[in-house]
Structure formats: structure tokens, C-alpha cells
Amino acid sequence: MIRSSNIKKDETGFTLIELMVTVSLIIVFVSMAVTYNRTADQQIALYREQGKLVNTFYQARSLAITTFNRSAQSLDACGYGIHIASSTSLTLFKDLPDPLNNNQCKDYASLVPSSIYTGSEEDVNSIPLEDITISQICGGSICRNVVDNPIDVLFTPPNPSVFSNISFPIVISLHAPSVSPDLNITINQFGQISVQ
Fold first, then answer.
1. CA 20 to 30 Å from 102, out of 15, 60, 77, 180?
2. Within a domain: 134
């Protein structure tokens, strides 16, 4: 005998509450991933810009050392330096001999210059920077914004000697939004460049 029974099918599917919880969790995880990705991108950009700045300092120092082997007749630069006047670009420049002083190089050891960079006629190369803020660190805190007070660092042969319109050691801080900690570049009076 065949028995007839009511076979109850399992009810499948999600309730409205289950769907809302699932969608909410997906939104939370996606927003966390997007935020983390933006922070990682900004940190990579900060390291990239630090690399540009450090390479430009090394280039200026190397160019200054090569000027030492030139004769006085072929001297077209007394040294090479970096001029930082904004967070969007920096300038590699050559310090030109003084035409008013028989084309002799300036004696920065006896001067306390407010600015070493004298203008675009000294420009060798302009390097664009992106998405960072540059400032000077004094005693552990920011003491100078480059927009208000440009930073000049000049390397002169033979050692190289280093001259600047700011006090030594020169600590330049690079900051990107949402990235911590800031990156620092330190230059001492003997031309040593270190990265922190």
C-alpha cells in the first residue's frame, strides 16, 4: 500500500534581514580595502618623491666634485646645489662665478647668505614633485615651510664643502596626507646625505 504523505519542501533563499547584513558587511570590507589601498599608494608616492630628492642631492654633490678638475679658464660653475622653493618642484642649479669680482667664486665661508640661488640663469634642471609637503625640521619640530622660506643647499669642490641658507645639520621632512611617519633627509656640513 502506498501511503500518501505531504512532503514539505525545504524553504530556500535569504530573508530580507540576511541580505541587508550581507550587503552591509561587503560594503564595510570594500571601504576598508579602498582606504588601505589609498594609504599604500600615498606611502609609495612619498618614498618615490624622497628618492627623487635624494638622487638630486647626490647629483649636485657629484657635479660639484667634478668641477674641481677644471681649469680656471674653463670654469663655468663654482659648485652645484639644490633650490627648494615649493612642494611641487625643486631646482638643480650651478653657482656661477661672480662677474663683478673678476669671475671669481663667491666666498660663502665668510658670508651668511639669506639665499644662494640667484635666479633662473643658474638652472640646470627642474624636478617636479607630486603629492608631498616639504618642510625643515629644527630640534624635532617643523620650523620652516619652504613656500615661505626657500631652502638652498650648495656643494662646492673639492671635498665637497656644503653651504646653505639654513643651519646645519639640514633636516628636510617630506609629508604626504594620511601617511605616517614623515620621511627625513639629513645633510651635514661635510656633504654626507642620510635618509630616515
1. 60
2. yes
